[in-house]
């Protein structure tokens, strides 16, 4: 499709903007542009058609099966958007006096109370902007905790080899050191390797549970005890909380701090990279290290406070207010029974899909899973030359979105599938049939797979070239 600049025709204009209702102030000559600003000129119908074409070129959860339930594309109830757009919330300003926004501050305290109940934590901050930002904030708090206790030598964070890539990156940003430990044959923490890794320099452990293979670690209580006995703290990566919310609590597993992807687990649209909210919850021992602007009820008013040992501000103002407002709406709408039902539905859908595919695909980590499962196409690649990438591209031709590819890194030719709780059995059966058809086709016509997709908006592209040489701006010199 054409870019909006390529649609532009000199002389077209629109009169859609209302007359200015405030005094007009001219910029000083020294501040004015020296060159004409490049803006497209289109009539209103062409503007509408352009954005409609863009929408049609994008695949979303409204278009078909989208097996990334906890990561990005969980169904987002429209009532969430209605609440976020409510004028009393949408029209406030971050610099307003606290007494004028008491209702909005109650959103903070009410959401905190409910999330503390769900996670087993004692305090929540909403300041971090997204998941990796929540990791970073959590690690800063762990670092500050050890330094205050006179143990600055505790600067090593243990991270399993199956962890999300943001985990070691966040560790590096804090100036601490990552200690990588291997997984066992089930994709879980190798207990003996963990025992060898802990010591007087251990600051903590970063762990996702269920892990990236969709397995709930049966040794979780032993794991967190080993770290605590060594003097470290346990951090819970909340990426997979969708599998256990309302059923099990990280706080009861021995975790001291946790980040929550409110924009994923609690149903705010996140496709396209934002906005997000990486709320951080912690136990009492870490509460004094929370970022500033922590809301507290004082008398008849809710006010922002700065905890005694605060790590300071990690984001402008107070966090992504509309995101955790949506999360609050979602929690209140579902209630305690609905929250647990969402997790159980996600686990049921994933296990059903796994059961229907395990006879033809390699399943490296057993016959059951939590909300997601991993299949390996390594054998298929050796037999036919068809890779996980080829199969993913083939899935696009069936009006479905492909699963996560080549992750976790511990599984060769991995596809990680996570059908969310909102998908019906009929839709999952359709997806299962597509996977099975592609498996058969890979043995019958393997060469075809290297050209897939054939019917998508964009056909097979050179992904390496696209990543290394992206074209990110329009060249007006060619006009």
From TrEMBL:
Pfam family, one: GDC-P
Positions of the Glycine cleavage system P-protein N-terminal domain: 27-290
Cofactor(s), by name: pyridoxal 5'-phosphate
Annotated ranges, domain Glycine dehydrogenase C-terminal: 342-438
Catalytic activity: N(6)-[(R)-lipoyl]-L-lysyl-[glycine-cleavage complex H protein] + glycine + H(+) = N(6)-[(R)-S(8)-aminomethyldihydrolipoyl]-L-lysyl-[glycine-cleavage complex H protein] + CO2
This protein's record includes keyword Transmembrane: no
Keyword DNA repair: no
SUPFAM superfamilies according to UniProt: PLP-dependent transferases (SSF53383)
Keywords of the record: Oxidoreductase, Pyridoxal phosphate
Top-level lineage group: Bacteria
E.C. no: 1.4.4.2
Broad enzyme group: oxidoreductase
Role according to the record: The glycine cleavage system catalyzes the degradation of glycine. The P protein binds the alpha-amino group of glycine through its pyridoxal phosphate cofactor; CO(2) is released and the remaining methylamine moiety is then transferred to the lipoamide cofactor of the H protein.
Full protein name: glycine dehydrogenase (aminomethyl-transferring)
Organism: Enterococcus wangshanyuanii
């Amino acid at each position: 499709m054409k870019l909006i600049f390529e649609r532009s025709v000199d002389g077209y204009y629109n009169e859609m903007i209302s007359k200015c209702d405030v005094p007009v102030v001219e910029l000083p000559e020294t501040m004015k542009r020296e060159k004409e600003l490049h803006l497209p000129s289109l009539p209103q119908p062409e503007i509408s058609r352009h954005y409609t074409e863009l929408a049609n070129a994008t695949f979303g959860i409204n278009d078909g099966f989208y097996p990334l339930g906890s990561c990005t594309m969980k169904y987002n109830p429209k009532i969430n958007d209605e609440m976020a757009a409510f004028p009393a919330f949408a029209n406030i300003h971050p610099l307003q006096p606290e007494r004028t926004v008491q209702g909005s501050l109650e959103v903070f305290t009410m959401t905190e109370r409910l999330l503390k109940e769900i996670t087993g934590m004692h305090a929540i901050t909403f300041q971090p902007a997204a998941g990796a930002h929540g990791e970073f904030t959590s690690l800063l708090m762990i670092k500050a905790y050890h330094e205050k206790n006179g143990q600055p030598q505790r600067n090593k964070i243990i991270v399993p080899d199956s962890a999300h890539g943001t985990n070691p990156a966040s560790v590096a940003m804090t100036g601490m050191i990552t200690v990588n430990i291997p997984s066992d044959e089930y994709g879980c923490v190798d207990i003996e390797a963990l025992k060898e890794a802990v010591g007087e320099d251990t600051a903590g452990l970063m762990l996702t549970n269920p892990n990236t293979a969709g397995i709930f670690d049966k040794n979780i209580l032993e794991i967190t005890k080993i770290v605590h006995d060594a003097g470290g703290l346990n951090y819970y990566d909340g990426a997979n909380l969708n599998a256990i919310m309302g059923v099990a609590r990280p706080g009861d597993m021995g975790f001291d701090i946790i980040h929550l992807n409110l924009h994923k687990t609690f149903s705010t649209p996140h496709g396209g990279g934002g906005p997000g909210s990486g709320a951080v919850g912690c136990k009492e021992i870490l509460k004094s290290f929370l970022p500033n602007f922590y809301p507290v009820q004082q008398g008849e008013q809710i006010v922002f406070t700065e905890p005694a040992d605060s790590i300071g501000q990690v984001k402008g103002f107070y966090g992504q207010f509309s995101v955790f407002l949506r999360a609050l709406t979602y929690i209140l709408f579902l209630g305690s029974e609905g929250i647990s039902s969402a997790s159980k539905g996600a686990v049921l859908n994933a296990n059903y899909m796994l059961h229907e595919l395990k006879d033809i695909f390699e399943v490296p980590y057993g016959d059951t899973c939590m909300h997601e499962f991993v299949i390996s196409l390594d054998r298929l690649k050796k037999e036919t030359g068809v890779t996980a990438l080829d199969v993913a591209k083939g899935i696009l031709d069936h009006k479905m979105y492909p699963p996560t590819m080549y992750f976790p890194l511990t599984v060769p030719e991995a596809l990680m599938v996570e059908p969310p709780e909102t998908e019906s059995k009929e839709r999952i059966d359709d997806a299962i049939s597509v996977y099975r058809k592609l498996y058969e086709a890979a043995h019958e016509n393997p060469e075809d797979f290297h050209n897939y997709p054939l019917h998508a908006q964009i056909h097979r592209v050179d992904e390496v070239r696209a990543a290394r040489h992206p074209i990110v701006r329009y060249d007006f010199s060619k006009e």
